[in-house]
Model the fold of this input.
Amino acid sequence: MAKTHVTCTINGEETEFLCDPNQTVLDVLRDDLGLTGSKEGCGSGDCGACSITVDGRLTCSCLMLGPEAEGKSIGTIEGVATGDHLHPVQSQFLKHAALQCGFCTPGLIVATKALLEKHPNPTDEEARYWLAGNLCRCTGYDKILAAVHAAAAEMRGESA
Amino acid sequence: MNDISLKDALKVVGTRPVRPDGVDKVVGRAQFGGDATMPGMIFGATVRSPHAHARIKKINTAKAEALKGVKAVITAADMPEIVSEEAFVGEGPMNFRDLSNNLMARDKVLYDGHVVAAVAASSMSIAKAAAELVEVEYEVLPHVIDEIEAMADGAPVLHDDVFTAGVDPKPTKPSNVAKRVEFAKGDLAAGFAAADKIIERTYKTAPVHQAYIEPHACIAAYNADGQCTVICSSQGQFMVRAYCAKLLGIDISDIRVVPAEIGGGFGGKTLVYLEPLALALSRKAGRPVRMVMDRVDVFRGTGPTSGGTVKVKLGAKKDGTITAADAEIILQAGAYPGSPMGPAAMCCWAMYDIPNARAVGVDVVSNRPKVAAYRAPGAPISTFGTESAVDEMARELGLDPIEMRLKNAAKNGTKALYGPTFQNIGYVETLEAAKAHPNLQAKLGPNQGRGVATGFWFNIGGESSASLAVNEDGTLVLVSGSPDIGGSRASMAMMAAEILGIEVEHIRPIVGDTASVGFTFLTGGSRVTFATGMAVCEATNEVVKQLRGRAAKIWEIDVEAVEWRDGSAYPAGDNAGKFEPLSLADIAAKAARTGGPITAKGAVNAQGAGPGFGTHVVDVEVDPETGHVKVLRYTAVQDVGRAIHPSYVEGQIQGGTVQGIGWALNEEYIYTKDGRLDNASFLDYRVPVASDLPAIDAVLVEVPNPRHPFGAKGVGEVPIVPPMAAVANAICAATGVRMTSLPMSPPKLKAAIDAAGK
Amino acid sequence: MYSPTYAAPTTVDEAVGLLANASGSARVLSGGTDLIIQMRSGRLRPQTIVDIKNIAGTIGIREEADGWHVGAATPGAEIGENAGLCAAWPGVTEAVQLIGSTQVQGRASFAGNLCNASPAGDSVPGLVAAGAKAVIAGKNGKRTIPVEQVPVSPGRTSLAADEFIYEFIIPKSSGKTADAYLRFIPRTEMDIAVVGCGVCVTLDNNGVCTAAKVSLGAVAPTVLVVDAAAKALIGNKLDDATLAKLDAAAQAACNPISDKRGTIEFRTKVAGVLARRTAAIAFSRAAAR
Ligand SMILES: Cc1cc2nc3c(=O)[nH]c(=O)nc-3n(C[C@H](O)[C@H](O)[C@H](O)COP(=O)(O)OP(=O)(O)OC[C@H]3O[C@@H](n4cnc5c(N)ncnc54)[C@H](O)[C@@H]3O)c2cc1C
Ligand code: FES
Ligand code: FES
Done:
């Protein structure tokens, strides 16, 4: 079985990997690159637990084939914090108890960060629609929304 | 012991620190079941039945075994045959033989998605390809999906050795009705005779899945010496150990189960689906085997909770006094007996003090996956019926729904239909708090309506273990046996910190594996903060005692003369002020010279978990042209005893409520005519998404539980009980249409509105 | 064992060559939000996957004399960012942005939505109502056909094995012409349309409709163009009588199935409701132009 050789950037680092053409980027991240922060909740685009950014655009890593990553810049949950310095979205998720089991959390944080980079001051409705593809079964989303708004305020430089 | 009424004296309990396991979870480092690896691991996959009911005539594994990279193929022939025996390992009744047959069908498959074989191979794609090469010859049998149809004469009978239990005389013919239970008090006939108004209705609910976002996952290694290790996400490492031992004929001491982080359970991870298969594959292949379910298999093969039929008859006087109440709850058990019809019957009238009442539970098997526990198992189903009926009664009598409930409310001293006499309950307090909530002042517009419903769950205690060790620098490690599915590590550390008088950050709480902490019953029944919390408090009190002893030794005074407060030992009584206080760190540093390591264990079989009550009020808007329901406002009030970490208590309430909203509006199992599950994906199994919902206002009422050191009651399950009736009642208020069947999805609601000509 | 080959050609000819010469089945890959799922579930197992996204012109939007050229594989999110196209065709652009989640929007395209040939594809009624055309590349060069001629039955298109959609041309809107698209789903997001409706109308200065196209999704094996519904609008203002006629015409055109997403009765009724609501939006937009 011929594997495809792929070169891309993951969290700012040039990365090479070999993959089967029908392996998804999620499979590659988790099984071949040891980046298990992206989760598989459905493998069919419905849950958002596998959220990544590709050239800055939010997408599901389970809906992208490994070879498609060639030349792309990929961002995963592992690249959100800088060293041991948490991103405001991460620290506000913690502060607002926006996670229970935490399985949806990596995807939600990647998606929230993408939201706030595009819409620094989203309304509750905008935030809820943006995040509609990130299922969370534990929290009922209430505290997630609180964390999103607090992170937005912090990123805008308003003290939360 | 702490005086639980002295809430103000508490320094840690009741605050909202960042949880100790939080950072790992926000940076993507937390290890869930599917993240673990072992050297040399291979990958497992299952072969599942496409038929709802069929006899297995032959399984040919030769082609699968011949595929390059395949290391093992197993069928039921590779698993010991288990004799029928009641198991008390998980949540709810279970039979070891049934569970074994559920894991891997032996003679018959009983539902679409029933496992018939499993394979292990050097890659996941080879394993999947091999699974497709396993040839199974079936003799397809007639099937039955609906519980009422399954009860009918002439329905296909699933098991020839199931005879209805709990009826007299004992039946002689096998039946799909596995069991009947009844709880009764007073004189029903007299009660209904005394009523001014009687309401009689039949309600129907659809089975719903727990729909945790993390699919089941494990990795298992069976070593040549018979020693086994399993890493998995479950609601109980000891539960997994017990089942694996029993189902594979292995000694308990030979199995070590390491709990991974668990990505949601809600009751659905209180039994095993993969672990024994992975071990059996590992035994055959001689390699560690990882198995991860995909979402389709999660829907087809695990959970859900029962759907059912609830027949309710309710009688009341004009002033709203309930004179008699009767309910029959017929629940789907899935393929094997064991629906939660018992708790469903026990809970459905528990909010009320009714002189004449009865609740009957009926357990019915049909060709669906075996049901698993789901948050307050059974209670949401029966309560949908009873709380819809109470609402209709209030409406008929022209009474306010909260006043109607206050009039009949269970109070301290009320003897519940299912036996016990309530003490320290807070039902009335939740009703009063709901009444006073500003959300109830909001004005409603056209097509909008407000609904009220309440709910009850027992909460359980049971066996728990914990141990606490003081480190050399005075920090501590707290090990408990309860998997943390919603922030319980934080609560455990907080209780210990409160007793020790130190900051919670100085305690590192971890969930122990089965070889590092004493037996602990699974995480379920809302028991962890209560029961495991008691074990933690016991261990912590013992550590405090030892710390005082060490200080006494250092000061050469009597231990009784040492007082522990704010994290330090102080000389007390005659010695007060004679010595400088010794901090935990000081004592820890001298531990070697004063008697060695300071550690303690707590082990309890906790009793007296305070029962929980909740009152929910929801405002909805109905689009009468499409039947679409929008939830506008939601108020969920609950008596929580004492909130150890209020954020996580609120989170439990909000999460449970939203699961209930999903159950009310859109979630259901849809089967094709030939008995196949037709909506095994999140696209068509519609759990609520963020944009479907408003804020969920969780209101905590605290009526402390005197049986717990800090007054805690279980909180996780009550919130899923009221929402279905609350939403139905709100829809009725908005449209005048009484929905009696869940889900109240747009096609159904639209048809009902059109039929009513509204 | 299933193992396809993946190719990412950079020219149209190369792509056509790959499709034409593929041994076994070949599939075009745009955003993959349908294809990858179908491959994973085992429903489709193409031997060759031809990723067209590296071909110049398959991603991006250009305004030209003959209309808006939208690259076949342009993701919904990028379409939504094009202010000019969104202003010109709010219905078409809102429709494509209804597909899936924000994440799915990062990939999902018009071409995939159309060629997946589901009767419920959200962007299709909008494209049809707006009079959009598909530019199809194949062995014999390019040809241009109305969008509604692409799907022929659920899961099947009129494209030959060597063909793929290169781009779409959406006419320039002029005067008092405007479109709208609405769909009905049980939740607020993440569902497949139970019914979808696209309406495009042109009004005169008195608010009387002079031209109309009404299209319905998910109520028949392919997206419908409902001439009777258009007729109900043409020559009329949007008054109650017109709306009632429109509603009836839309319902009459329906030939749906009952399935896990909706019943025949429900789909039919809601088609009427959506036709009215969508027309109301299109009319008010057109009037405002
Ligand atoms: C979670 C989720 C939610 C969704 N929600 C919606 C929704 O709300 N509404 C909706 O309509 N759809 C929905 N979809 C389906 C899907 O996203 C859309 O149909 C999407 O537009 C497909 O576009 P794509 O570019 O991803 O297609 P692909 O998957 O790349 O292709 C789909 C099909 O079209 C063919 N194809 C692709 N490009 C071309 C081309 N240029 N020429 C010829 N053939 C081509 C492919 O071979 C394949 O058969 C959803 C999907 C997911 C995963
Ligand atoms: S795993 Fe990708 S969306 Fe669920
Ligand atoms: S915290 Fe468990 S799914 Fe979101």
Remarks:
- The two ends of chain A are 54 Å apart (CA to CA).
- Chain A has a mean pLDDT of 97.
